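Lecture 7 notes. Example A: sequence first, then its structure tokens.
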Amino acid sequence: MNNPLPTLVDSATPVGTLWLTIDDGGPDGRSRAVEQYHEGALRIIRPHYLDDSGQVSFTIVAVGGGYLGGDVYDQRFRVRDNAQALITTQSATKIYRTPQGPVRQFTEIEVGEHAVLEYLADQTIAYREATYHQFTKVKLHPSSTFVLSEEITPGWHPAGMHFAYDELRLHTEIEDSSTGRLFLLDNLLLNPAQRQGSFGWTEDYTHSGQFIVVAPRVDQELVDELNQLLGQWPRVHGAASLLGAPGTELKGLLLRTLSNRTEELILLHEQITSLLRQRWRNQPPVNLRKY
């Protein structure tokens, strides 16, 4: 892919590499992989078609069972013009103790003109003394649709502590591929040792999520609708905000959520994804068939 990730990914040999290019597939209307490469601890399950829309679904598998200190992962996904794809994971991403240094995951995404990518990963579970740095760089055409769903869960601790991990950083950049202008720079940092107990951090909640949508039909009316929808989830606290930036035609929203159960966040994110699929593409609700 052009415009590679920051040089940090080149300074160490990744323990897992996964590159995937998806095209629109031609007359049959089915999107399909035209370039695919994996090495090390990352694999991808053969594609599935969950409905008759032509959208192809891929499942990423981390064969090592969990991420360890010093691990580096390199993921690159390109969805070409008019193609439709859904990428998910087989199970939660588990971050164990990292005395050798932080786990780093670099993900580069490019979504072409009138293309669709829904990136619906399972939750990230951070265990005690874990440090995880995630860098996600996204390039979108103004006519494309992009959905990103993420949840963060504290791992089991023998003393019952909920925030025993050292640090989690989720760094996300979204750029307009037609102009090169930056649309979103989001840096979510969770550092329990410095923030636990302080007012306004996570209050009494233990789990957090973020949900990003960038699409031509995002507007304030949709943001207001999602904020009203949140009122139907009494065990979830959160809010949606409209995103915008000068020099780009990209339109988007960011939803931040807090809860005490991972399932609540996953189901909420799936409900919103399904609402948008039906409204914008007359597509059935998302059904990942994992359980």
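Example B, a different protein, same format:
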Amino acid sequence: MHIAIVGCGVIGAMTAYELSGNSEFRITVIDRQFPVQGATQAALGVLMGAISQKVKGRAWNLREASLKRYETLVPELEAATGTIIPFNRKGIVKLCLADEEQPDWDSLIETRRSQGWRLERWDLTKLRQHCPQVTSPRVVGAIYSPDDRQLDPKTLTLMLIEAAQRRGVQFYFETQITGFASDQTSSGLCACHAIDTQQGRFAVDAIVVTAGLGSTPVLQSLQQVRSPEVAGEKVVEVRPVLGQAVRMRLAEPLGNPNFQPVVTGNDIHLVPLGDREYWVGATVEFSAGASEILPDADRLQRVLSGAIEFCPALAVGVTVEQWSGLRPRPHQRPAPVIEPMPGYQNVIVATGHYRNGVLLAPATAQSVRSMVETIRAVAS
């Protein structure tokens, strides 16, 4: 069964690797640019699962499945590629602010305990013991999540691609799709049987669209041939959300050099990278419509000022890199979109992960695998 994946950010690469574990699948990945150029490079890789307020349903199930998979996936990829993936297992410290409405942390701690995950409530004394770099008078305590993680999205994606290539997956980068060949079947649904590109035609049995912000034009192209009952239905519209961050280098590590978790507060992340370097970000900025949104230097400066308020030692840091990028967010529907394309029997949509693409990539790939196996079972 030949499966084409359109888009090779972290979602596309993860899906390719997941599907490549089945020897009955032949997989081709097509992207109009090189990997980690789109939303994946606009990510800090913070895996906020147990500390999130999602406790049931799809939102929690995806997070839990992904967190569990990462614990086995990272060493699996490292063994397959011989490359170390920066993977911070020190957890996440969420700062509690005096002037901020606090959720019912005690209830969440108990829920997580019943689900097999740990959360700890820290008073100000315990926070200062573990994270002496946090000195803001606004901070009254913290919630510590030792089971949450952070990793480098770029290295992860590149190692997924390398490991998938070793399993026989074919990747075509800088390849523009020019069209699709689709027909209506006897069931009334459509089936796409070929993808046309600048490098030629690819005959396919199934398509998975993981193109992030590029998903909407791909789906619109496929929409031109659909069954009558869904012909007027709008395809998923993905809109850009801007993220920004700065990479800073300090003279010495913040706080305890042997305990370097992600610290987050007021939607600002402080992400340790090793060698006395840290990411500080990321802002969330929406466009007025579907148009592209440009970085706002003043907004980024406010984020940096907020981080310095929490952790004054950052004020003497040296900025070594400034970063911005767009994340895909579905318009007028929950994120992410992981479902068959309406009117098609062999097109799957896995896009619009907003701020959680890296976090949800493993569970997304597992969901896609299940849907592909269903397509194969129906076809046979």
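Note on Example B: The first helix runs from residue 10 to 19. The helical segments are 10-19, 57-81, 105-115, 124-130, 153-166, 215-223, 297-310, 357-379.
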